């Protein structure tokens, strides 16, 4: 069982995400006395009788003034079995870009709904974002059950409706669990609630401790974007030349046949180095320095990949975009694409489709893509790039779109992602 | 597997992941910026930062200089440690001195004698004068609520200011370091370390730290509920009684507002046990500057602080 779980909250504004995160921290004794003092004082000032646990995460002045979350807060806590990295994201539609930020690295999404309202527009938007990004598992936390008298029937209706929606988004049975909770009172968060005798499943915390994390794709072919060339030129290491990077997929061992892309140069791994010594093997996520047996011209931006299973090298591909900017995207736009360790100029040749995440339908050839919309585009690049499909190799299939004029990040990009990969969605063939 | 073994495994995986993440961040900056610099005070977080930088570029030397914003209210042990580290690794050290600013009138000493807030101007000037475009800081998200909101690559305006409402999305590990002339990026490779992670990693790597992080005898006096040490910052006052206690520091900052904690922890293992048992955060226990208001840290960051 993996010992580290990264999770992100999601769901509509005021559905109780920050309170739930505060409750998790509080009930796992991850809140220290001075932090608690501070929020107790602030809660009294606001005329509240119990401490407002959302203040543990809503750390910005304007968040506290407005009582909403604006940007992601990262919090950490651990139980004897697992360490958790928790991203509490905003529900407000205006800050969806920050929700995408928190979700991009999550292994589990905790999607909240208010039990009184059930699934709403923003729930569907966030569910679509989580599905697109390939977050492998979801929890539907049906929150505020204290306000519906812990009514089983109401819970079941919401859970059923969402299960159907999640299935349409491609979530297989067993990857989505609905839990009735009250973040405010603590029901079924860390302790089993006596108010919901009809619920026999795990508490949220039990589930977080036990949920399987998708194994590192050890079987996946090796990929490492070169970040930096290490050439000490010191008396001790006069001729050392190593390629520094973090393994994006797969594993590497000395003796492995590799290919350097986009050039297509073949070589063999001579050693896998770290400051702690050379390794017999290194896996996904590890930062290493690779020494090759041939003297090649390799620079930042190149990708070292398994020779027998290399990514395709291309200067055009289709991709899904989560558009995160208030500047709208139109066909013909010139942008920068940062993928791996390379940033290249690109042109958006075609807007092929827009995914309507509310109705789960496809709009063909839209005229533009606006803030928070999800689309499929055809990109042409000024240089050849080695790319994988996001669904096959997320770290080498992910890219960001940057505005060349002011450097803003405009979109999250997923190479090759087709909406037809979301089950239940039919789309016309893209030319 | 027993629970203890599972817990040990969890801890090891976690530290390995944090190390790889930090190394990746250092290398991204080295690859994309012209003039990066590491903020280095000699404290534990900046020492850890440097340790990771050394690992990131091994066997080549660290390709960045260090910048110390010196408040003039230093612990001798920390300055000695700073100079020792600079010498040992053959690094270049740039010092921005708050004292110089006070001496020539560019800054005025505050009534309370605290110099932490005075660091911002010399820091921003040093960044501008040296044309630093990326500035590594040892900030961690678990330190404080406002820090928990900051990106790993945090864009600062030409005035060094952080605008929390205008942070860029930060997706996967694809950092966007684009900035306009005059702007710079603060980079936080330790963002996802907790205080416990820092100490566990220090133990694992046997990182050398200034001696004041471990228990020692010290003459201290109590002010605002903290044990402050005697020093040129004007303490103790006549009404403040001096005690000789066994203490250590959990954080090291400006001497006038960094408190010691009573402790007998004299080894890394003892410190780890103490941190785990503590019911106070490190800032809550030791930093007068953060007790000033609910949003003290956010306000200082907006002004251009670390
Ligand atoms: N009765 C009740 N109220 C709750 C519960 N959970 C949260 N609330 C209240 O709902 C309001 C919103 O809670 P937050 O935790 O700030 O909501 P949020 O989802 O984080 O909101 P944004 O981050 O702005 O999207 C607060 O007044 C909470 O006290 C619950 O389980 N029961
Ligand atoms: Mg919130």
TrEMBL record, chain A:
Keywords: ATP-binding, GTP-binding, Nucleotide-binding, Nucleotidyltransferase, Transferase. It comes from the Bacteria. It holds the Pfam family GTP-eEF1A_C. Its EC number is 2.7.7.4. CDD domains: CysN_ATPS, CysN_NodQ_II, CysN_NoDQ_III. Residues 2-216 form the Tr-type G domain. One of its GO terms (biological process) is sulfur compound metabolic process. The keyword Transferase applies. It is an enzyme of class 2 (transferase). InterPro entries: CysN_GTP-bd, CysN_II, CysN_NoDQ_III, G_TR_CS, GTP-eEF1A_C, P-loop_NTPase, SO4_adenylTrfase_lsu, T_Tr_GTP-bd_dom. This is sulfate adenylyltransferase. It comes from Prauserella sediminis. The lineage of its organism: Bacteria, Bacillati, Actinomycetota, Actinomycetes, Pseudonocardiales.
UniProtKB/TrEMBL annotation, chain B:
Coiled coil: none annotated. Residues 36-259 form the Phosphoadenosine phosphosulphate reductase domain. Its EC number is 2.7.7.4. Keywords: ATP-binding, Nucleotide-binding, Nucleotidyltransferase, Transferase. Pfam families: PAPS_reduct. Residues 282-306 are annotated as: Disordered. It is an enzyme of class 2 (transferase). NCBIfam families: CysD, PRK05253.1. Belongs to the PAPS reductase family. CysD subfamily. This is Sulfate adenylyltransferase subunit 2. It comes from Prauserella sediminis.
């Amino acid at each position: 069982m993996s010992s580290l779980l990264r999770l992100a909250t999601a769901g509509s504004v005021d559905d109780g995400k920050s309170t739930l995160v505060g409750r998790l921290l509080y009930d796992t004794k991850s809140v220290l006395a001075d932090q608690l003092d501070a929020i107790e004082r602030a809660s009294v000032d606001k005329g509240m009788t119990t401490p407002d646990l959302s203040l543990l995460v809503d750390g910005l002045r304007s968040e506290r003034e407005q009582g909403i979350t604006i940007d992601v807060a990262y919090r950490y806590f651990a139980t004897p079995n697992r360490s958790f990295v928790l991203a509490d994201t905003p529900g407000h539609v205006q800050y969806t870009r920050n929700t995408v930020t928190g979700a991009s690295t999550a292994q589990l999404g905790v999607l909240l709904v208010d039990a009184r309202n059930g699934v709403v527009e923003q729930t569907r938007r966030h569910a679509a974002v989580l599905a697109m990004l390939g977050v492998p598992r979801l929890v539907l936390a049906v929150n505020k059950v204290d306000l519906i008298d812990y009514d089983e029937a109401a819970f079941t209706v919401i859970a059923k409706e969402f299960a159907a929606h999640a299935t349409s988004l491609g979530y297989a049975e067993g990857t989505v669990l609905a839990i009735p909770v009250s973040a405010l009172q603590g029901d079924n968060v860390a302790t089993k609630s006596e108010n919901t005798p009809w619920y026999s499943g795990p508490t949220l915390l039990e589930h977080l401790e036990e949920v399987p994390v998708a194994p590192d794709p050890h079987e996946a072919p090796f990929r490492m974007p070169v970040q930096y060339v290490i050439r000490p030129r010191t008396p001790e290491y006069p001729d050392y030349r190593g390629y520094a990077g973090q393994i994006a997929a797969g594993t590497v061992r000395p003796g492995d046949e590799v290919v350097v892309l986009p050039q297509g140069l073949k070589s063999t791994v001579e050693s896998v180095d770290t400051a702690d010594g050379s390794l017999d093997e290194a896996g996904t996520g590890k930062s290493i320095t690779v020494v090759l047996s041939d003297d090649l011209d390799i620079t930042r931006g190149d990708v070292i990949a398994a020779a027998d299973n290399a990514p395709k090298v291309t200067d055009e591909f289709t991709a899904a975009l989560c558009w995160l900017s208030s500047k709208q995207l139109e066909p013909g736009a010139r942008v920068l694409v940062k993928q791996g360790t390379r940033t290249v100029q690109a042109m958006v040749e075609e807007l092929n489709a827009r995914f309507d995440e509310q109705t789960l339908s496809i709009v063909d050839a839209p005229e533009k893509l606006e803030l928070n919309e999800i689309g499929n585009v055809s990109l042409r690049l000024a240089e050849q790039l080695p790319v994988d499909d996001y669904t096959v190799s997320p770290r080498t299939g992910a890219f960001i779109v940057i505005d060349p004029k002011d450097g803003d990040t405009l979109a999250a990009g997923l190479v090759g992602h087709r909406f037809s990969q979301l089950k239940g969605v039919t789309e016309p063939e893209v030319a | 597997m027993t629970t203890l073994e599972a817990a040990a495994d969890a801890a090891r995986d976690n530290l390995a992941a944090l190390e790889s993440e930090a190394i990746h961040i250092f290398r991204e900056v080295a690859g994309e910026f012209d003039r990066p610099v590491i903020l280095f005070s000699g404290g534990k977080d900046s020492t850890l930062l440097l340790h990771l930088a050394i690992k990131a570029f091994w066997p080549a030397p660290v390709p960045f200089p260090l910048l110390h914003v010196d408040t003039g209210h230093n612990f001798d042990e920390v300055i000695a440690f700073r100079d020792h580290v600079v010498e040992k690794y053959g690094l270049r050290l740039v010092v921005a001195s708050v004292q110089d600013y006070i001496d020539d009138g560019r800054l005025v000493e505050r009534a309370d004698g605290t110099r932490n807030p005075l660091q911002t101007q010399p820091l921003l000037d040093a960044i501008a004068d040296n044309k630093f475009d990326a500035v590594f800081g040892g900030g961690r998200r678990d330190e404080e609520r406002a820090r928990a909101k900051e990106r790993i690559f945090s864009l600062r305006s030409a005035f060094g200011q952080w605008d929390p409402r205008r942070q860029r999305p930060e997706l996967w590990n694809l950092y966007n370091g684009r900035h306009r002339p005059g702007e710079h990026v603060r980079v936080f490779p330790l963002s996802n370390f907790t205080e416990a992670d820092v100490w566990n990693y220090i133990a694992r790597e046997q990182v050398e730290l200034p001696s004041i992080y471990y228990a020692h005898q010290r003459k201290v006096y109590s002010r605002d509920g903290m044990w402050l040490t005697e020093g040129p910052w004007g303490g103790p006052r006549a009404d403040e009684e001096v005690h000789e206690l066994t203490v250590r520091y959990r954080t090291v900052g400006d001497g006038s507002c960094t408190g010691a904690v009573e402790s007998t922890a004299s080894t890394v293992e003892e410190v780890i046990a103490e941190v785990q048992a503590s019911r106070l955060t490190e800032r809550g226990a030791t930093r007068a500057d953060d007790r000033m208001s609910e949003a003290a840290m956010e306000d200082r960051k907006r002004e251009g602080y670390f």
